[in-house]
Automatic annotation (TrEMBL), chain A:
<protein>
    <recommendedName>
        <fullName>Phosphate transport system permease protein PstA</fullName>
    </recommendedName>
</protein>
<feature type="domain" description="ABC transmembrane type-1">
    <location>
        <begin position="64"/>
        <end position="270"/>
    </location>
</feature>
<feature type="transmembrane region" description="Helical">
    <location>
        <begin position="252"/>
        <end position="273"/>
    </location>
</feature>
<keyword id="KW-0812">Transmembrane</keyword>
<keyword id="KW-0813">Transport</keyword>
<feature type="transmembrane region" description="Helical">
    <location>
        <begin position="101"/>
        <end position="128"/>
    </location>
</feature>
<keyword id="KW-1133">Transmembrane helix</keyword>
<feature type="transmembrane region" description="Helical">
    <location>
        <begin position="57"/>
        <end position="81"/>
    </location>
</feature>
<feature type="transmembrane region" description="Helical">
    <location>
        <begin position="210"/>
        <end position="232"/>
    </location>
</feature>
TrEMBL record, chain B:
<dbReference type="InterPro" id="IPR051124">
    <property type="entry name" value="Phosphate_Transport_Permease"/>
</dbReference>
<dbReference type="Pfam" id="PF00528">
    <property type="entry name" value="BPD_transp_1"/>
</dbReference>
<feature type="transmembrane region" description="Helical">
    <location>
        <begin position="259"/>
        <end position="280"/>
    </location>
</feature>
<comment type="similarity">
    <text>Belongs to the binding-protein-dependent transport system permease family. CysTW subfamily.</text>
</comment>
<comment type="function">
    <text>Part of the binding-protein-dependent transport system for phosphate; probably responsible for the translocation of the substrate across the membrane.</text>
</comment>
<feature type="transmembrane region" description="Helical">
    <location>
        <begin position="21"/>
        <end position="42"/>
    </location>
</feature>
<keyword id="KW-0472">Membrane</keyword>
<keyword id="KW-0813">Transport</keyword>
<protein>
    <recommendedName>
        <fullName>Phosphate transport system permease protein</fullName>
    </recommendedName>
</protein>
């Protein structure tokens, strides 16, 4: 590998730099395009009105509300389960066959394609439990999908808490649960919340898991209970960009902008928290 | 007072174990539901006709998997051909050449890339990239495996970069110092010492990137042309495994052969992702062990 030396070495270094730069340029182009096209399409009416005339006019209010409902539902399902599992793995479980199986299942949960979650959610919640295509079914499906990220984040955050904190608390006579809930978890909170925020950002943008479990094609009113179907931003974007002929461009760009604003926004908040608390 | 604290403590201990074990149950449940629904399909549709059938025409009851596998294959080949070299070179820059501030900014930018919903990538592929591809290659339509693969490389690059970066960072300082002390320059150190040493971690990143590509649904549904044919080049329209489920499940009659056939695709996808993740996990462990962690 003589070429790594001398002049050609410098050329290779330059090449590495250029490729790295080229990797990040598309994201700026993409975000630039979305902002440039999307911002003019946003208006108060667009954000607060229901869609009209087969979605070709009006706004996206029900889709925004639907996404918020599904996101809150997802948090309600995944945060308690995810955090409890993380706490169990770090604070309670010993390293035995059971914990190894749990770890393996978490890894595999993380890798299962999102459409499989959709199939599973439909078969179990919609059909078997007869919950129907609803906010509840969609939240349960998305919640399970988010579990691995939250579990992993919780586990890493708890492992980073120094043992001396635990020992000091126990030495003062606190029970194990008091130590965990009043000392360890507060110390690990930044890490846990980063995981939660990142997984919410993912859930808010997912379409495949809600295709058959929660999303409605066209529903120009708001849900009244958790057993209702809802419109959701990602599915709405899919529908208006592929299924509705003669869709006005401005509606598509507006929806695109709102969706990206929410998902990327959440993600940047998560990144900010992590950076702030990382040593 | 004292005993209430004790009771609460032991209750919490049990509750956490139960929740922990519940996770195993979920994975088993997912597998069972996909498996049982698939078995209903294989009861009256021969395995060989499913796995070696070259036609997927649901209207005439032909459920051959091969065209869908071919579709997923071409999309994956394109996406990996872009994301592996680009991802690894970008990682080298981030880990070895960039200063601390640049490093931090680059990592946040690349993470932002992974936050883009796949339906957004699909939209951009549909309205921006496909026109460009159509004109460049003078095709009748820009919706093909190439367009899909390019968009999907955006999803794989963050995964590959993040795992490769971890692997390079985990290497002991002595690797760099020993190599430099022996008179190797920085590039030689990177290519001959650090990359080979970090290989298990990088390979795990590639496997997980592959998993994201093969499992991605909305973007491929929107931009690969939706043609379940035995494509011979990436410039042909294709249909992937995931897109078939997403496109057809909405219209299928529940409990029909077609319905169960889609679960059979789900089973194949489940098996692929299980295999991919197990291999990736094995290499992540290997990489940690090498670093003595």
């Amino acid at each position: 590998m003589k070429f790594l030396k001398g002049n050609s070495g410098a050329a290779i270094e330059l090449f590495i730099k250029v490729v790295a730069l080229m990797t990040v340029i598309p994201i700026f182009l993409i975000l630039g395009y979305i902002i440039y096209k999307g911002v003019p399409a946003i208006s108060w009416d667009f954000l607060t009105e229901v869609p009209k005339r087969g979605m070709r006019a009006g706004g996206i209010f029900p889709a925004i509300v639907g996404t918020i409902c599904l996101t809150l539902g997802t948090i309600a399902v995944s945060v308690p389960f995810g955090v409890f599992t993380g706490v169990y793995l770090v604070e309670y479980a010993k390293d035995n066959l059971l914990t190894r199986i749990i770890n393996l299942t978490i890894i595999n949960l993380a890798g299962i394609p999102s459409i499989i979650y959709g199939l599973f959610g439909m078969a179990l919640f919609v059909i078997y439990f007869k919950l129907g295509v609803s906010i509840l079914s969609g939240s349960l499906t998305l919640g399970i999908m988010c579990l691995p990220v939250i579990i992993t984040a919780t586990r890493e955050a708890l492992l980073a808490v120094p043992n001396s904190l635990r020992e000091a608390s126990l030495a003062l006579g606190a029970t194990k649960w008091e130590t965990i809930s009043k000392v360890v978890i507060p110390a690990a909170l930044p890490g846990i919340s980063t995981g939660v925020i990142l997984s919410i950002s993912r859930a808010a943008g997912e379409t495949a898991p809600i295709l058959f479990t929660a999303a409605a094609f066209y529903l120009p009113f708001l849900p009244t209970s958790i057993f209702d179907q809802v419109m959701a931003l990602p599915y709405h974007l899919y529908v208006i960009s592929t299924q509705v002929p003669n869709m006005p461009q401005s509606n598509m760009h507006g929806t695109l902008f709102v969706l990206v604003f929410i998902t990327v926004g959440f993600n940047l908040i998560g990144a900010y928290i992590r950076n702030k608390f990382e040593k | 007072m004292h005993s209430i604290r004790k009771i609460k403590d032991s209750f919490m201990s049990k509750l956490h174990s139960v929740v922990g074990i519940f996770n195993i149950l979920i994975v088993i449940l997912i597998f069972i539901f996909i498996l049982f629904n698939s078995l209903s399909f294989f009861k009256d549709y021969p395995l060989s006709k499913f796995f070696f059938g070259t036609e997927w025409i649901s209207l005439s009851g032909k459920y051959g998997l091969l065209p869908l596998l071919v579709g997923s294959f071409w999309v994956t080949v394109v996406a990996l051909a872009i994301s592996i070299p680009v991802g690894i070179i970008t990682t080298i820059y981030i880990a070895e050449f960039a200063n601390k501030k640049t490093k931090k900014i680059l990592k946040i930018i690349i993470e932002t890339m992974s936050a883009l919903p796949s339906v957004v990538l699909g939209y951009l592929g549909l309205y921006v990239l496909s026109g460009f591809i159509k004109d460049t290659f003078q095709l009748t339509s820009g919706l093909n495996a190439l367009t899909g693969g390019i968009m999907l490389s955006f999803m794989a690059i963050p995964t590959i970069v993040s795992l490769s970066d971890d692997a390079l960072n985990a290497l002991d300082k002595s690797y760099r110092e020993a190599s430099l002390a022996l008179g190797a320059n920085k590039l030689e150190t990177v290519f001959k010492v650090l990359l080979p040493a970090a290989f298990p971690g990088i390979f795990a990143g590639i496997m997980l990137g592959f998993g994201r590509i093969i499992g991605e649904t909305m973007a491929v549904l929107m931009i690969t042309g939706n043609a379940p044919i035995m494509a011979t080049s990436p410039l042909s329209p294709v249909r992937t495994l995931t897109a078939t489920i997403a496109a057809e499940m909405g219209e299928v009659v529940q409990g029909s052969q077609h319905y169960y056939a889609l679960f059979a695709i789900g089973l194949v996808l489940f098996a692929i992702s299980f295999l991919t993740n197990s291999i990736a996990d094995k290499y992540i462990r290997k990489s940690r062990k090498l670093m003595g962690k």
